[in-house]
Design brief:
This protein is mainly α. About 80% of the residues lie in helices and about 0% in strands. It is globular and about 50 Å long.
Length: about 140
């Protein structure tokens, strides 16, 4: 529940124009139109390049559109602006898993748990990724 509240705070941090673009982009993502969502999130970034959540949402849209490199670059921008963004680390772990980069997924998940140790199922997920990345039986 706390995670959700923090994510809402991040979303509400932008100007009214940025929030409008973010809302529209998220609606487009839910409707299965990642290219349209990417355009709106990109416009939000143009208006406020310091707004980390626009970079994060554009990373998700790019990932859903199949642009893994663009998504990873956007996650880098998020973490540069807000290194404690646990949601971006979660997205990075999912990106890495999708490409069977188990070491990358494991590293991202470790960082996420450092920030958000109460993530539901977090320790189980970490052990699974550790097994896949390192061949550990633990």
């Amino acid at each position: 529940m706390l995670e959700t509240r923090i994510e809402h705070i991040w979303l509400d941090a932008g100007s009214p124009a940025v929030r409008l673009l973010m809302t529209r982009g998220m609606r487009e993502l839910q409707a299965g139109a990642p290219a349209d969502a990417e355009e709106d999130f990109g416009a939000a970034i143009t208006l406020d390049p310091a707004y980390a959540e626009a970079w994060h949402r554009r990373a998700i849209a790019r990932f859903e559109a199949g642009d893994t490199q663009g998504a990873i670059a956007d996650i880098g921008e998020v973490l540069q602006r807000e290194p404690r963004n646990f949601a971006a680390l979660d997205t990075l772990a999912r990106l890495s898993e999708a490409h069977q980069d188990w070491k990358g997924a494991y590293a991202a998940w470790q960082k996420k748990l450092e920030i958000d140790p109460k993530t539901p199922g977090g320790e189980i997920k970490l052990k699974d990724l550790q097994r896949r990345a390192l061949g550990d039986d633990t």
